[in-house]
Amino acid sequence: MKIYFAPFSPYVRKCLVTAHELGLSERVQLLPANANPVQRDQELIAQNPLGQIPTFLTDEGTVLYDSRVICEYLDALGGGTLFPRSGAARWDTLTLAALGDGVLDAALLARYEDAARPEALRWAAWRAGQLDKAETALAHLGAHPALLAPGRVDIGTLTVACALGYLDVRFAEFDWRSRHAAVAQWYAEFSQRPSLRARWTL
Questions:
Q1: 3-class SS of residue 52
Q2: I need a labelling partner for 12 at 20 to 30 A (CA). Which of 27, 69, 140, 157 fits?
Q3: Residue 35 confidence (pLDDT) above 90
Q4: CA–CA separation, 146 vs 185, rounded Å?
Q5: What are 95-133's pLDDT values in tens digits?
Q6: Taking the model in full, what pTM does it have?
Q7: Burial of residue 98, with CB atoms counted within 10 A of its CB: 0-12 exposed, 13-18 middle, 19 or more buried
Q8: Helices (H), the chain
Q9: CA 76, CA 62: separation in Å to the nearest integer?
Q10: Measured between alpha carbons, how far is 175 from 163 in angstroms, rounded to an integer?
């Protein structure tokens, strides 16, 4: 199996963390990618018309995207339980994962505002509005501690952990721990999982 990879992509990391949790990481080969919202990677577009990462190739040559699809594929392949198959647990888990993905989506848009948009065209209120999505999401998690219950390991909690890790990497000044102590306490323990401590490079 192969995945198009960039070292700071939180979505690629989420897929690799999932593979690690399922004992599949040694089977996933990393391929270089130059995904960019402006200067688009033509090699990547040949595999995925959106030209985005993660893009994943199965052993059979099937191309999968995006991270939500790839993670569920890996869970099925590895016989895992990161995605409950039915009932209330499935919808609860997918909704938590959507919350984590929403934080990632917003943080990436704020990052593009800093790194991809010409300085003269940057919109501070837009950037602040995106990071406020992270703020309200973390407040929601703090107000509903059952969502991050001790011992809960599924695609929801893994996605939230990857989102928090991305905030640390790209937005240290956001200092989310100072306002969300319960989430910080959960993350301090959860982030010690081997899958979240692992690092990948080409």
A1: coil
A2: 140
A3: no
A4: 14
A5: 999 999 999 999 999 999 998 888 999 999 999 999 999
A6: 0.96
A7: middle
A8: 10-21, 42-47, 67-77, 87-115, 124-143, 155-170, 181-190, 194-197
A9: 15
A10: 14
Q: What is the DSSP string of 138-190?
A: HHHHHH-GGGG-TT--SHHHHHHHHHHHHHHHH-GGG-GGGT-HHHHHHHHHH
Instruction: Tokens for 36, please give them.
Output: 């960019």
Eight-state DSSP code of residue 57: E
Q: What is the dihedral of CA 35, 107, 110, 197, to 10 degrees?
A: -70
Q: How far apart are CA 148 and CA 160, in angstroms?
A: 9
Q: Return the amino acid letter for 135.
A: E
Beta-sheet pairing, 29-32 with 56-57? unpaired
Q: How far apart are CA 199 and CA 20, in angstroms?
A: 11
**Which residues neighbour 35 within 8 Å (Cβ) at sequence distance 6 or greater?**
4, 6, 9, 41, 44, 51, 52, 53
Q: What are the Cα distances from residue 26, in Å, to 11, 30, 51, 78, 164?
A: 18, 10, 25, 13, 25
Per-residue pLDDT tens digits for 38-47: 888 999 999 9
Nearest-CA neighbor of 95 among 83, 106, 107? 83
